[in-house]
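Following up on my earlier message about acetoacetyl-coenzyme A. Here are the inputs again, as you asked, copied directly from the submission form:
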Amino acid sequence: MPVEEKPVAIVTGGVRGIGRAIAEELINEGYQVLVTYCHSEEQAEQMGKLLKEKVVIKRTDISKQDEVDNLFDEVLKQFGRVDILVNNAGITHDKTFHKMDANEWHEVIDVNLNGTFYCCNRAIPAMRDRNFGRIINISSVVGQKGNFGQANYAASKAGLLGLTKTLALENAVKGITVNAVCPGFIDTDMVSVIPDNVKTKIQDDIPMKRFGTAKEVARAVKFLVSSDAGYITGQELNVNGGLLTH
Ligand code: CAA
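Thanks, got it. Here's what our run produced:
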């Protein structure tokens, strides 16, 4: 397919972990994929060398509105369309709430929730113009049930669920679906830094007794952006090994 006809997918935080797995699934599905990263220079370089022209990689701090605006200006100029937006970029600053300072609160909200707002703010008008769009917000089981040491992260991920449902209602008539994927504990760098004693306890609590893989999350995203999922919007798709069952 000529480059200019390929549907375009943007995956934030797409050079490692869950985002990288999502980007690879979408490349395999034939999308023109653009990924952002913020600090992971090395992984970005490695991904560029491996995937070459199959992916466009842009450094973007999604917590800064002007950087997100530049990103979308460039994408729309180069490709003229945005078909899929996967809001995946996220950070943690884990600490019990009574020890958490305002910076640790704001930094997490700024990336995870405000960053998603900035991306949707630019993607939605472009999608509405073409009467098509798929937005996937990567939330978390932590946003659904809370987690010890993650008040800031839980609030940001719960915020994404409210955003998802509202955007779904407002944009359904324009052919845009908006869904959330809620991963449980997935074998990524984010989980690898959990203290060993806590990690063991978490794993014990998971009915499947194992962490998930990034690919298992990516496959859920692949489904939700596919035409098979065209009538699904405003939903939370859990990929959590049974950790939460509603
Ligand atoms: N349940 C019950 N008790 C817990 C606990 C839990 N889940 N986690 C920690 N504790 C306990 C500790 O064992 C410790 O107890 P003791 O004092 O008796 O040893 C106490 O709580 C720690 O209290 P502190 O006030 O010292 O805690 P802190 O402010 O230093 O924070 C912590 C410690 C950052 C919470 C640390 O325990 C930690 O990193 N926990 C893991 C947090 C976590 O699950 N993060 C998920 C990362 S993955 C992710 O975010 C992706 C996703 O979407 C799921």
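One observation from looking it over: The two ends are 41 Å apart (CA to CA). Hope that helps, and feel free to reply on this thread.
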